[in-house]
Design goal:
The chain has helices at 14-27, 33-41, 60-77, 85-90, 103-120, 128-137, 154-159, 182-197, 203-213, 221-231, 236-239, 257-261, 267-278, 285-300, 306-315, 322-335, 340-350, 359-373, 377-386, 391-406, 413-416, 435-443; strands spanning 422-424, 432-434. With 448 residues, the protein is mostly helical.
């Protein structure tokens, strides 16, 4: 008989969050020397738990100290001035209306997002070296199709195991439609929200949708923090700034693609919509990355030139931001003659120490892959996933951009056939959906 069950809630316990608070404060340039010394002197660690929670609960004394120190750091966060990003977006030039894209373009965007996400799911949180070891051990390097366990030695998989939540539905031998994934759920929530509230939706609308459509256990990092904040009465536009060390992680970026799809050729309006969504849970680079994704998707709906797409994304980034600098470097590396693995080395060096779920490094990786691939669908998603970090999330974003540029009919069948036009979701009322139907519904949200 197994021992008694003891729940260990991830991304919530003060003693598990404190290392992330330290990292975020250091990223913002805040002096944390006194707080760090207090925590280490009590026996605490600066290493964050990889899965969001330590296996053994902290003592009451350590939990109390963690709360005290995070409150001190929180006070310092609130004295760190925010850039007025909304005004920055509003001041950008307006864009002329573009012809309505074909249904095949919308279908390609949804299908490409699914394929890029599905490709990255088995190796989410696997280091670059592990991805390469898996592929080389089975003579499949460089990556050119969905992952498989066939011919991968047991020793390699013991050292670099598949993602536990994905291994039974995302390998070449067991794919049966697009399985449930938060990266796809958020795209569906964006669709449902715009369908329900219109193009002038607010951040409050999203807060309401989250609480009604998302079980608490299906949200992570920044989204879980905000979920808690909403339940204790936080104002939605302020909830993302309260006790949230994940406010610059990738969660908002993965929610933004649809705003580009419904604003073809108009990256400014797409970014403004993404801002209203992202503001619920993120700040600074977390918001900028979401708006960048929306802007790139907007241009991908009307252009087959990857430079147009990248220009649109860069245009909505504040020039002094960390994400702007990383993406500019990534774009330069992408068009250089440098071998791709060396280009990745240079990008990794630039963002050294950044968490694998951070917005800045993942967004820059997407730019590197888009630039190097020139928008070729297969090359773009495989280069992205071989780069590591949050493989399914940034793979999905790159997939949606290149899927729109390519169109569903021209995406190679080895990516689309296993998906079988079926998307599974955990959102109430959306158990399994036809991707073609999602494309029709998305196209209906265009301005008429």
């Amino acid at each position: 008989m197994n021992g008694p069950f003891e729940m260990r809630l991830t991304w919530a316990q003060p003693e598990d969050l404190i290392a992330h608070f330290f990292n975020q404060a250091a990223f913002e340039g805040i002096d944390i020397s006194a707080e760090t010394q207090s925590w280490l002197a009590a026996g605490g660690s600066l290493a964050p738990p990889l899965a969001g929670v330590k296996p053994i609960p902290a003592s009451a004394q350590m939990r109390a100290l963690a709360i005290e120190i995070t409150n001190q750091l929180e006070a310092k966060f609130h004295t760190n001035p925010e850039f007025d990003y909304k005004d920055f977006l509003d001041a950008l030039p307006n864009h002329k209306s573009a012809p309505s894209p074909s249904l095949d373009t919308f279908h390609g965007a949804w299908l490409g997002r699914a394929a890029g996400c599905l490709l990255g799911k088995p190796v989410e949180n696997t280091q670059r070296e592990g991805i390469r070891a898996i592929l080389q051990s089975s003579n499949r390097w460089p990556l050119h199709e969905y992952f498989t366990a066939t011919a991968v030695p047991a020793q390699v998989l013991a050292e670099h195991p598949w993602n536990q939540q994905s291994k039974d539905s995302c390998l070449q031998e067991n794919i049966d439609g697009m399985p449930e994934d938060d990266d796809m759920n958020y795209a569906l929530i964006a669709l449902l929200t715009v369908e329900k509230y219109g193009r002038d939706f607010t951040t409050d609308h999203f807060a309401d949708q989250w609480l009604k459509l998302l079980p608490a256990a299906t949200v992570y990092t920044a989204e879980r923090i905000v979920y808690r904040n909403l339940l204790i009465g936080a104002i939605p536009t302020q909830a993302g700034a309260i006790n949230n060390p994940f406010k610059e992680w990738i969660g908002a970026l993965i929610r933004a693609d649809l705003y580009g799809w419904i604003n073809p050729g108009d990256p400014k309006t797409a970014a403004q919509m993404a801002f209203r969504d992202a503001q619920l849970s993120h700040r600074r680079n977390g918001i900028y990355g979401a708006c960048m994704s929306a802007a790139m998707n907007a241009m991908a709906m009307v252009s087959k030139n990857i430079d147009d797409v990248l220009d649109a994304g860069i245009s909505v980034l504040p020039p002094n931001s960390a994400i702007f600098k990383a993406c500019q470097l990534a774009r330069q590396l992408g068009v250089s003659d440098m071998e791709y693995e060396l280009a990745l080395d240079a990008l990794y060096a630039h963002v050294d120490g950044m968490h694998w779920v951070h917005t800045v490094n993942n967004a820059a990786l997407g730019v590197l892959a888009l630039s190097r691939s020139k928008g070729d669908f297969t090359q773009a998603i495989t280069l992205t996933v071989m780069g590591g970090w949050d493989t399914d999330s940034i793979g999905a974003t790159v997939g949606s951009i290149c899927g729109a540029m390519t169109g569903a009919e021209k995406i190679p069948s080895n990516w689309t056939d296993p998906i079988d036009n079926r998307l599974t979701s955990s959102i109430p009322g959306c158990g399994q959906l036809a991707i073609t139907e999602l494309a029709i519904r998305t196209k209906a949200l265009l301005l008429t």
